[in-house]
Design brief:
Layout (H helix, E strand, L loop, with lengths): L1 H5 L16 H8 L5 H27 L19 H6 L18 H12 L8 H10 L1 H23 L11 H10 L1 H14 L2 H21 L5 H28 L2 H18 L7 H11 L18 H13 L1
Helix pairs in contact: 5-6, 6-7, 7-11, 7-12, 7-13, 9-11, 10-11, 10-13, 11-12
Length: 321
């Protein structure tokens, strides 16, 4: 009774402010102490980036010039040209008769690279590709159109999973559904690539993603319909993501393909730099920017070109037919 009588009824209004948590305190409070589970999670997350890192090493092989192998005797000529090529260091392999070397088509690729990179350079790199495309406006238009569409797809692809907290439903369930949507999207991409045109597929998928994303604005929060619309939008975006990468490979010839595809992928990643947008912004962006694909030619069933001249000849044949 004495303790109860001496205890003040009201606490002081000048209470001391709570001490700010340090980084270590926050990690221990919300994640827990470092243990086997946290270590395993960190290893799995780091392992996922190993597949992304492979693309850094791909240009080392794709930019390498093929080795010339002497076949010995040219067709219809009893003399060997291997000793002639070895004896004359200043002679060009492109000047030898056909059939002397096994990779004769590399002469055309070499001339194309020299024209793109200058007389003293090897013709590789992004700047040489941009210079070559600037001289051919059709290639520049293709690159601008596919990069614009890729920017919209990348914004939704990287931003939609970060925006699931605004659905008003179970956060863990929403993240799980988005992760599971990646698997059927890969199968659908494979089916669409074999049966439907590239251009029509990308336009239809980006339009569907935009409509479903805009539906998330109209559907009330916390309902199953809003979660379903978000998952469908992300599913269509994942499929468009896969098809755009394959489409960009078929749009450009071998001499500039590696750098062009690299810039398309940079546009995809650049779209996800600032991805904290609303579902309405996602829907309008992916739906409108996806229409730029209509400016591109259809590549389904076409032969891949090796040089810019080959691509121009193929385009002229298609337009003339």
């Amino acid at each position: 009774m004495a303790d109860a009588a001496t205890t003040p009824l009201l606490t002081s209004h000048e209470a001391k402010p709570a001490k700010a948590l340090s980084i270590d305190d926050a990690i221990e409070t919300y994640i827990g102490a470092t243990g086997a589970r946290q270590l395993l999670t960190a290893m799995l997350l780091a392992f996922a980036w190993a597949f992304e890192a492979q693309q850094v090493f791909m240009p080392v092989f794709t930019d390498a010039e093929p080795t010339w192998h002497c076949t010995g005797v040219a067709a219809g000529d009893p003399g060997s040209f291997c000793s002639l090529a070895a004896a004359s260091a200043s002679s060009s392999a492109c000047a030898l008769p056909p059939g002397t070397f096994s990779m004769l088509h590399a002469c055309a690729t070499e001339r194309e690279d020299d024209a793109a990179g200058g007389a003293g350079g090897g013709g590789g790199g992004v700047f040489a590709t941009l210079r070559s495309m600037w001289e051919r406006r059709w290639a520049l238009r293709r690159l601008a159109a596919i990069m614009t569409a890729s920017f919209g797809v990348g914004m939704v692809y990287y931003g939609m999973p970060l925006n699931v907290g605004n659905l008003g439903s179970n956060l863990y369930l929403s993240v799980t559904y988005n992760a599971l949507a990646e698997f059927p999207s890969s199968v659908l991409s494979w089916l669409l690539m074999g049966r439907i045109n590239r251009r029509s597929s990308v336009v239809a998928l980006t339009a569907a993603a935009g409509v479903c994303s805009l539906a998330c604005v109209a559907i009330p929060e916390g309902t199953g319909g809003r979660m379903a619309a978000e998952v469908l939008s992300f599913f269509a975006t994942c499929t468009a993501f896969n098809i755009i990468l394959m489409y960009s490979i078929e749009l450009f010839p071998t001499s500039v393909r590696n750098s062009a595809v690299g810039m398309v992928r940079q546009a995809l990643v650049l779209g996800g730099v600032r991805s904290y947008w609303s579902f309405g912004v996602f829907g309008l962006t992916v739906g409108c920017l996806g229409l730029f694909v209509t400016c591109l030619p259809e590549t389904k069933g076409r032969r891949l070109s090796d040089t810019m001249e080959d691509e121009e000849e193929a385009a002229a044949v298609l337009s003339g037919g």
